[in-house]
Structure formats: structure tokens, C-alpha cells
Amino acid sequence: MQSPERFTSLGVLRAGLVFVWLATAVVSVVELDGQSSELLKQAGWSDPLAIRVVILVGAGVDLVLGLGMALWPVRGVFLMALAMMGLMTIAATVLAPTLWLHPLGPMTKNIPLAACLWMLLREERRN
Hints:
mainly alpha; globular
């Protein structure tokens, strides 16, 4: 049986991850023609419709994963979030490797996020 303190800690951890995924979805839509669009243009993408579709699909995935972690916090959702974050990290690294040097850490933040997801996965396996 889990102690209340452990349960609360994992709940706070999960709530933080839910916030990150939902906020990313919202920001991606609000900033549709902003930084993500510029990143894709710098990587050689020129079709505005394709750029918008890729960003909106990404925002949709973030929304689904955020809601999934909030409403159905099960192993499969955490695994999907970890896999998508890994794929997006690889894609961003290929498109703009200098993001790893950004002082606000848009890429480096993925390492502790992955650790948080791993902790939730381990705990879900025990239950």
C-alpha cells in the first residue's frame, strides 16, 4: 500500500507533466506562425500549409497526451508521452541542434521530464 505522502508526490509530479503537455498544445496553436514555424523554415520547409499541419498535428498530440495523463494516468499513456517526447527531441536535434545550447533549455528540459515519466511508469508497474 502506498503512503499518502508518496501518493501526493506522484500526484504533483503527474500534475506538472499534465501542465507541460497542455500548455505546449495551447502555445503551439497560439504561436502557430511563430517559433515552430521559423524552425521548420530554417530546416528547409517552404510550404506554409505543410508547416501549419505539422504544428497543429503536434499540438493535437500534446493535447491528447496531456488529457490522457490527467484523466487516464495509466502506463500506456506515460509510455506514449515518453516515446513522443523522444521522437520530438530527435527531430528537433536534427533540425536545430543549437537548441541544446539555448540558455532557457528547450531541449535540456526533456531529460528531467523523461525522468519524471520514468518514475510514473515504474510506480504504475508496481500497482
